[in-house]
Amino acid sequence: VGRLILVLGDQVSEDLSALRGADRDDDVVVMAEVADEAGYVPHHPKKIAFLFAAMRKFAARLRDDGWRVAYTTLDDPANSGSITGELLRRADEFGTSHVVATEPGEWRLIHALQDCPLDVEIRPDDRFLASHAEFDRWAEGRKELRMEWFYRDMRRKTGLLMENGEPAGGKWNYDHENRKPAPDAVDFGGPMQFTPDETVAEVLELVGRHFGNNFGDLHPFWFATDQGQARRALTHFIKHALPKFGDYQDAMLADDRFLYHAVISMYLNAGLLHWREICDAAEAAWKAGDAPLNAVEGFIRQIIGWREYMRGIYFREGPDYTSRNELGHGRSLPGFYWGDATNMRCVSKAVEQTQAEAYAHHIQRLMVTGNFALLAGINPHEVHEWYLSVYADAYEWVEAPNVIGMSQFADGGIVGSKPYVSSGNYIAKMSDYCDGCHYSVKTKLGEGACPFNLLYWAFMDRHRERFASNPRMAQMYATWDRMKPERREQILSEAETFLNRMAQGALV
Ligand code: FAD
Ligand code: DLZ
Ligand code: SF4
């Protein structure tokens, strides 16, 4: 044969650069379910099942389109266990040493392909809006890499929500209209759910057998697993939830796992949806008068702004990014991230839904589990591995800048100019978690004090040298300094006691 065309689990897109210009008669598409990819972190079973099912259905579709596909299932006795192992095996089988690949989204796998003793051509992944070169050109010479400026360039480049070269409605960003606290009732029934078909059922059986002990519930499984289903899920969101997406973007409810979120990141990141079709659909809803500008602008910003920006940072910062630890945090991740009991209702609920759905929305990830880990001084690499494991949409290129950068400030402030820390107040304002919590959010110290309140000040105190001169944090330091010394000491000592009990595995 001519060449092997590698298609990875998160590359199930028809218009993949590796497939472009390939010869259906001469070339062979290689796809493989392998232990290495399924095991570099203990992925949530739903994430593995989603990818395997999407891979199998994509392979079937390619075959229908006349491609030759060499597909290795996890159970295949000949399975070598790794992507490069499978390439070597197929190279031998088909008598070729030429491989065409689309750049993987993790350095780990890029290096594996580069080190593989075959002739591997790695093509850019142009399913993204900004190439690495374009992002680097934008970043070059800037003191601060602010997402907002990058986003404006992407608006100009795509023409999305632009009118005669100006932003629609006269403003680039409508966030001041967003971020309302949690509503009393949500009139969106959640993302579209799909009944497992035969392919999915087979994969569920396989994943249950191999990964049943990983953290996370495999059943019920309702994700879309092909392009047609993912598009229906997108349409469902645009029609029923997008109009209120902006208003409640930052709200959290204990008994509503999705609010008005799209729940499409796993589809987009795997390649079942393209950013362009998503953004076009959102823009069309605004033009038709079906969704307000604050919602549509906010939604489009997440995709052509944040998502592309995060990818730019990951590739620009290089392979050592996930080991950064600028704040020197070293505690281990407590067991309640893996489902052990905790009295903190917000954390318990966010982890519980993560376990059930392999999904939590942005503010749960940032202001509950992320905020707690940062306040408690958890080793950011452990935090990173947790996020990479438990969410169905997690690949390093997007997970690491969100966790190491935005959430844990472990990159020293490349992604965010200030750490995302808050006391219990923020959670109380934006959610209903505090009602019925073992702790009292109004209690600042002493019996029943909310741990976020204690740990917040301990964090500020611990990192005074670094943050006191940050103008956006000066006011909090002034508040801290106004407290009586005995009160400050008591807060710090209670925070310490809490952390020590947590480290010993006590119920906290
Ligand atoms: P919506 O809230 O409906 O937003 C729409 C889309 O915008 C998402 O589907 C996503 O593609 C994009 N988006 C929104 N925010 C971001 C962002 N910060 N970075 C990149 N894309 C964004 N997103 C991932 O795709 N994979 C991850 O592994 C991941 N890890 C995260 C870890 C932390 C600590 C935090 C704070 C955020 C993380 N995010 C990650 C970003 C965000 O939380 C998810 O994209 C979002 O929750 C997905 O749900 P949704 O489709 O309902 O999103
Ligand atoms: C995440 C994942 C998993 C669980 N399994 C596979 C697999 O068996 N085969 C495969 O090709 N890809 C898998 N993936 C996705 C890869 O890990 C992903 O392509 C890289 O991490 C780069 O983003
Ligand atoms: Fe979380 Fe504190 Fe509220 Fe309990 S009181 S839910 S720990 S913020």
From TrEMBL:
GO MF terms held by the record: lyase activity
Organism superkingdom: Bacteria
Entries under InterPro entries matching the protein: Crypto/Photolyase_FAD-like_sf, PhrB-like, Rossmann-like_a/b/a_fold, UV-DNA_repair_photolyase
Keyword terms, alphabetized: Lyase
Keyword Lyase: yes
Descriptive protein name: Deoxyribodipyrimidine photolyase-related protein
Organism: Palleronia pelagia
